[in-house]
Amino acid sequence: TISSPMSTCYINYIHVKTVLFLFFLAECQDGWLQFKSHCFKLHRLHSININYRECCHFFQENCVSAGGHLASMHSNADNVFIKDLVWNTTNSNAVTWIGARDAGQLGKWVWTDGSAFDYSIWSNGQPDKYSPLEQCVEINYLGTVFQYFITVLKS
């Protein structure tokens, strides 16, 4: 919902921590799901009143302060896992923030965890290359259809 510069920001975001493999498989803590070598958790906060354009930075900072980062995707398997995590946690196709952001160059995107931006399934017309103001990415899964990205205005 964007109705003014100061607006209610509806929050779902996926926090990821890397599982360390030494001589044994480390397990994820309660409330986290393991996929590949990472632990994932969908955080659900009903709303927070901050400048809507600052939402993605707020979520990333929360993840970093807890020792993780926002989720990145690198394959269809990652996409399906995250879609299932969102659906199974919210019982809906709730809009959820992930760690994709613009790289400061129109049409170029990066993951906030520093990994290669080597996978994406953008919705029709997205990312909208007509506006240099679009910076952050939300996902919304329409039933069992592919990932739906929405770019959000930056300040």
Write the SSE topology.
Layout: E1 6-18, E2 33-35, E3 38-51, H1 55-65, E4 69-70, H2 76-90, E5 96-102, E6 109-111, E7 134-139, E8 149-153
Antiparallel strand pairs: 1-3, 1-4, 2-3, 5-6, 5-7, 7-8
Pfam family, one: Lectin_C
Domain C-type lectin: 35-143
Protein name: C-type lectin domain-containing protein
Supply the key terms.
155 residues, alpha+beta, Mannose-Binding Protein A, Chain A, four-stranded antiparallel beta sheet, 34% strand, disordered N terminus, disordered C terminus
The helix content, as a percent range, equals 10-25%
Number of domains: 1
CATH class: Alpha Beta
Specify the overall morphology.
globular
Unreliable spans are 1-9, 19-25, 143-155
Number of strands: 8
What's the N-to-C terminus distance? 16 Å
CATH architecture: Roll
How are the strands of the largest sheet arranged? 2-3-1-4
CATH T-level fold name: Mannose-Binding Protein A, Chain A
Calculate the mean pLDDT score and round it. Answer: 71
Say which CATH homologous superfamily is assigned: Mannose-Binding Protein A, subunit A
Question: Structural class from helices and strands?
Answer: alpha+beta
Question: What proportion of the residues form beta strands (DSSP E)?
Answer: 25-35%
Number of helices: 2
The H/E string reads EEEHEHEEEE
The radius of gyration is 15 Å
* Largest sheet properties: 4 strands, antiparallel
